[in-house]
Design brief:
Elements: E1 7-11, H1 17-27, H2 41-50, E2 56-61, E3 64-73, E4 78-85, H3 94-108, E5 114-115, H4 123-131
Parallel strand pairs: 4-5
Antiparallel strand pairs: 1-2, 2-3, 3-4
Length: 152
């Protein structure tokens, strides 16, 4: 990353779609799995654009999308998800800046707490969030797929 070119974080724009899909497919292996229709990046983007699109952020550097973060707030709790940083640019604080940006946006909405979920087989991701002050809550996360066959 050229230190002379600043990193900017801004709201997602529909013109970013192809770059975001490519980044997600690189970062999230499940987005490349045809057996997981609920992991369709185009569908995820469309759903986010229909619900709180102002909480969908991209990090841009040198004209390229190098990171993403989505947030949501239901009036009770906030959520952070789809945090992705280009693998070649990790450890340059891009993810940290994206999380801080999303937290600030949620705080501005009056959000008192943010939750997130991490797949249990991702210790490096758990370590990243722990370094940012996130702790495991004493809860069990439950889920149910609606409108499609249940898959892992």
């Amino acid at each position: 990353m050229d230190p002379h070119q600043p990193l900017s974080i801004r709201r997602f724009d529909a013109r970013d779609t192809d770059a975001v899909v490519a980044l997600w497919r690189e970062v999230f292996p499940e987005y490349r799995n045809p057996d997981k229709p609920h992991r369709d990046p185009h569908r995820s983007i469309a759903n986010k654009l229909a619900t709180q699109p102002e909480l969908f952020f991209v990090a841009e550097h040198g004209g390229e999308i190098v990171g993403t973060a989505m947030a949501g707030y239901d009036g009770h709790r906030g959520w952070l998800y789809s945090l992705a940083v280009s693998p070649s640019l990790r450890r340059l604080r891009i993810g940290t800046r994206l999380v801080a940006h999303a937290e600030q946006a949620l705080t501005a909405l009056g959000c008192p707490k943010v939750n997130l979920q991490v797949l249990e087989d991702r210790p490096e991701v758990l370590g990243f969030y722990a370094a940012l002050g996130y702790r495991a809550d004493a809860v069990v996360s439950l889920g149910k797929r609606l409108g499609m066959p249940e898959t892992a």
